[in-house]
Design goal:
With 290 residues, the protein is an alpha+beta fold. It contains six helices and twelve strands.
């Protein structure tokens, strides 16, 4: 239903981060699905908080030079959130990365934004720190096959179809919204007749392409079996990459993908592709968890 990150700040306090086009929608969803007996309050804290994100193999060294706190993997593992001191600011540091690298999201009161930014830039310059925009993030997330809500997945996709079944807690006490429907789908054979996959063109170059963007058809022999949902060049691995939704009445399984040759049509020309259920870059997430 949404693309959010929920951080538990205390026993009864949660911070929900969402994209700016969805903040009103997500607030409404939470309010309409929460039990009034919880006597809860939800409010938009956007104007009171700043966000800076730092990613890459030197990100720990840069933040550690500005903080007295223990940032080792043992003390601060991937997926954790800690309230730490950085420069002259008290920040919520969250270990996650849409770039697929070791990284931190730093949340802090807005009045600390300028000073914290300047401190990070000064400390990071000897490490080769550079600014990165949304296009750079898109190229990196494509290498990691990170789904983007509204492009690669939406409300009509289930976690199993999106390749996000690992994020479902099947034994969660009280269960979650939609649990019965997911259990029923998991018990089907096949469980997923369509699924989001990672693809890479075999014959592309960074200077001559072809490059994937959106809606290019994917062929299996003489049949269209899917389409590209988003694409970008993968600079870390030197390949033209995309995410695609494929359909097969007998199930989109690893065996079916391995047993067939697929092509993608770019501007009327069909090109052979490699297809995987897992990302082409750092498939085990070792760099993010370093």
């Amino acid at each position: 239903e949404a693309d959010v990150t929920v951080t538990r700040l205390s026993a009864l306090t949660f911070l929900v981060l969402t994209g700016h086009p969805s903040q009103v929608r997500d607030q409404s969803y939470i309010k309409s699905h929460a039990d009034p007996d919880w006597r809860f309050e939800i409010f938009d804290a956007t104007s009171g908080m700043g966000l800076l994100t730092l990613h890459g193999p030197s990100s720990r060294a840069i933040v550690a030079a500005l903080s007295p706190d223990d940032l080792s993997t043992a003390a601060f593992p991937f997926g954790a959130a800690r309230e730490i001191d950085v420069a002259y600011a008290r920040v919520w540091a969250i270990r996650r990365s849409f770039f697929g690298e070791l990284g931190y999201e730093l949340l802090f009161p807005t009045e600390f934004a300028a000073g914290l930014y300047e401190a990070l830039i000064e400390e990071g310059s000897p490490h080769g720190l550079r600014h990165a925009g949304l296009f750079a993030m898109n190229h990196c997330r494509m290498e990691k096959a990170f789904r983007h809500f509204g492009h690669d997945i939406a409300e009509q996709d289930t976690p199993l179809e999106a390749g996000l079944g690992f994020a479902v807690d099947w034994d969660k006490p009280g269960r979650s919204v939609g649990h019965e429907a997911l259990e029923a789908q998991r018990g089907q054979a096949p469980a997923t007749r369509h699924r989001t996959v990672a693809i890479a063109l075999r014959d592309a170059t960074v200077t001559g392409g072809p490059f994937l963007l959106h809606n290019e058809p994917v062929w299996l022999q003489d049949t269209i079996v899917g389409h590209v949902t988003s694409g970008a060049w993968g600079f870390r691995i030197g390949r033209s990459l995309g995410l695609a939704t494929l359909e097969n009445p007998d199930g989109v399984s690893r065996d079916w993908l391995d047993a067939n040759r697929f092509d993608v049509d770019v501007a009327g020309v069909r090109h052979p592709i490699d297809v995987r259920l897992r990302p082409f870059y750092d498939a085990n997430g070792e760099r993010m968890r370093a």
